[in-house]
Structure formats: C-alpha cells, structure tokens
Design brief:
This protein has eleven helices and 22 strands. With 421 residues, the chain is of the alpha+beta class. It is elongated and about 75 Å long. Bound molecules: fe (ii) ion (FE2) and zinc ion.
C-alpha cells in the first residue's frame, strides 16, 4: 500500500496533547514494593534485582515497548506514540541501572525510560508473577448455598468503598449475591444495576424488563410455568453479563428462585466424565431466538468455554433454546450424551439451590456462570420481578478500579472472560 498518509497527516505531537488522565509514567502509586537496587544486561534481557533479594528479567523489546514516558504515551488511554512496529526486534539498551529505587534504561537514540518498582513487579512475567495473576479460583457451590447465601444490604453496598467491594467479591467468587433492603421504584432497580455498571439494552429484553405472568406470553418468563435453570439469552454472541433481578412481589406458594453453579457442574463433569468434558469444551452447539418480523438471533459456541489454563471461563446453555445439533455425524450421539451430562446435573438436587426472594430483595448474578430458574407459581398471584442486565466487562472494570484503591495487591488478577461464541 503506497499511501503513507498515516505518517504525514499527524499534526499533534506528544508535547501538544493535554490528556485527561494524569501523567503517571511507569508507576502504579502503590507503597511497599521493594526498590530496584541493581540492573544488568544478560543477553536479550535486563536482569533487575530488588531490595528483597529477588530478581526479575525483562526482554529489551518488552522494556522499550512498555515505556510510558511523556513522549511514548500510555496504553491506558491510547494516547500512545509507541507501538510494536516502532522499534526493531534487535533493539537493546545502551545503559541500564538503578536510581532512587527505579530502573533506568537509556537507549541508543538517547531516549530514557524510568520504571518504578511497583509497576515492574505487577507486570513481571516470570513464572511466580504469572502464577500470582492467574491464582483466582471461583468458590464452587452446590445445593447448600441457600444456608449461607452471599448477601449484603443496600446500605452497605452504597458506601462506594469496603461494602461495595464486599458485594463485588461475592459476585466474583460465588457468581451471585443478594442485595437486601431495596424500595420498589424503578429508580431502585437502576440503583441496583448501577453498583456494577450501565444498563445494557437488547431487542429481546429491552432495557428494563418485567417478569410476571401476562395474558399473551412472548416468552416462558411471562407465564407461571416452572423454568429449569438456564443461561439468559444464550443465543447472543455475548449473552447478558450480569443479570440484575429486583423482586417487587412474590407468592407464598411456589415461585422459588433456583440457582446452579455452572462451574461446579463443569468441574464435576471434568472429573467423572472426561470425554463429555472434552466434547462440551470443543464442539459448538447452536442456540436460537426468533421473534417474527423483529429478530432472528443465533449463536454457536461450546457449552463450556475454557481459558488459557483449561479452567471454565463461561457457560452457554439454555435447554429450551437449544437448536438441532449441527456437527459432524459421528459426533451427534456423543454430543447429545455430553449435553445430557450437563443438563441432568443442572436439575439435580445435589447442585440446585433454592431461595425465596422477598419484595425488596435484589440479586446480581453472573449469567456466564450461574444458571437460574424458578419453580411454578399461580399466574394470578401477582409475582413480579424486574430484570435488567449489565455487561461483565463493566462489572470487572469497576471491580479492578475499586481494587486499585482498597485491594491493590489483587487489582490485576485474571478474571474469567465469559463464554465464547
Ligand atoms: Fe432467565
Ligand atoms: Zn519513552
């Protein structure tokens, strides 16, 4: 491509731009990290020694690419003048050293980079550092979760600090948390959602959705029939992330809320039925929703998504929305068997927990992990739950940002990124 306008039309240089983010360079602003005391070049890496006696190694290219000085810019706001093609693979420092606890690197073109120890240690990629960032594990649960259901009050969650972080940690670790003490206005539903992020609108649900029996039911939720546990809208490429339920009225009989930990089921299948686990993590299933004249929604992806470490990162299964299988004929019967392994556990008393949510209760639930349903109820009894959704990205983004302030050691741990299409 002869056009080089991407180089010549730039009229703003680093020095001309006023960024909204304050300049921080290669620092996180955390206390208590051991100072850099020495640095030496060893082949293709810089070996950095810290005051606690440990060392880390960083590749030359990695250090040059990661310079967040005012000329290079910062990946955090994308006002960035260095990318992976800004330097040759052969780049190497001219000098390396320690000064005032920082790592200082000078480059052949006289560019100077300064890296604080907190930034270096949080980004180091030696095995123990990578293990620390990947150390989070879900708290798997079964039917007895109802005995100690994760719960915070709305007052606690509204503190914007430790109480909100407690809510976030429950939602992160259990995939579900109950919030008590809500009033019943629409603004209270919005308040509940706003703990985790902005409300996400879809054609199927709209923005805020009333779950109650209606004379003409557009979908199963708007009847009094029992609903087996399911992932909401598993037919979207990115299904709703955090389901936000706000209970306005419940019945005395039936209408119990049912929940299942999809990650606990996945781990059980991995151990007891490894062949099924293999099929459920590698073969796609299709799930669909059609409202004539409006939308024809389809998503194809594995029932269990796994991450780079082989751990479940998302569940995608809505039993009633499962489309005819479309896989190589040799897999049709084994895949049905594998789906049954999941589906049977999903309705099994061992895995299924039940609670009666009361008016004023809210539930925030990770819809890429926890399946939810309800027992049947009399459609004339006025059960009414208001529902909206927030993406998981927004929740995790807020969790990390609050953690920077209150739990900095863990602000950068890897969290499951959800089910893939
Ligand atoms: Fe649902
Ligand atoms: Zn720089």
């Amino acid at each position: 491509m002869p056009d080089s306008s991407h180089r010549t039309t730039t009229h703003e240089e680093a020095a001309d731009i006023v960024a909204s983010n304050p300049f921080v360079g290669n620092r996180l602003g955390f206390d208590g990290h051991p100072a850099v005391v020495e640095a030496v070049i060893v082949g293709r890496v810089v070996r950095v020694s810290f005051a606690d006696g440990t060392t880390r190694e960083f590749h030359h290219q990695w250090l040059r690419h990661s310079c967040y000085c005012q000329d290079c810019g910062n990946a955090a706001d994308g006002i960035r003048f260095v990318t992976a093609i800004s330097f040759e693979s052969s780049i190497a420092p001219k000098t390396v050293g320690a000064a005032a606890g920082d790592l200082i690197v000078t480059w052949p073109d006289k560019h100077k980079s300064t890296y604080g120890p907190d930034w270096l240690l949080h980004h180091a990629y030696d095995a123990p550092d990578r293990a620390r960032r990947s150390a989070w594990r879900p708290t798997l649960w079964k039917s007895n979760l109802s005995d100690h259901f994760p719960t915070v009050s709305v007052e606690e969650a509204s503190d914007g600090g430790a109480g909100l972080l407690r809510l976030y940690h429950m939602l992160r670790d259990y995939g579900i948390v109950r919030v008590t003490g809500l009033r019943d206005g629409l603004d209270e539903t919005e308040r509940l959602a706003s703990f985790v992020g902005p409300i996400n609108e879809t054609t199927v649900f709209g923005r805020i959705y009333d779950v109650r029996a209606e004379p003409v039911a557009k979908l199963g939720a708007k009847t009094g029939m029992a609903q087996a546990p399911h992932i909401d809208d598993a037919f979207y490429y990115a299904p709703p992330g955090i389901d936000v339920f706000h209970c306005l009225a419940n019945t005395e009989v039936g209408g119990l809320s049912t929940y299942v930990d999809g990650f606990a089921i996945a781990e059980d299948i991995r151990i007891t039925s490894p062949h099924a686990f293999e099929l459920l993590t590698t073969l796609p299933i299709s799930q669909i929703r059609w409202h004539p004249g409006e939308v024809d929604v389809r998503a194809r992806g594995p029932l269990i998504s796994i991450d780079e470490f082989g751990r479940p990162s998302g569940i995608r299964y809505f039993d009633r929305a499962l489309a005819p299988l479309d896989v190589d004929p040799v897999f049709v019967e084994p895949l049905y068997d594998a789906i049954r392994e999941f589906n049977q556990r999903m309705i099994d008393d061992e895995f299924l927990t039940q609670i009666r949510i009361a008016p004023g209760d809210g539930v925030l639930m990770d819809n890429h992990r926890v399946l939810h349903g309800r027992t049947a109820f009399d459609p004339n009894q006025g059960r009414h739950v208001r529902l909206c959704q927030v993406t998981r990205d927004e929740f995790h983004a807020r969790l990390r940002e609050l953690s920077r302030r209150l739990d900095p050691a863990n602000h950068d741990i890897h969290l499951p990124s959800g089910s893939r299409a």
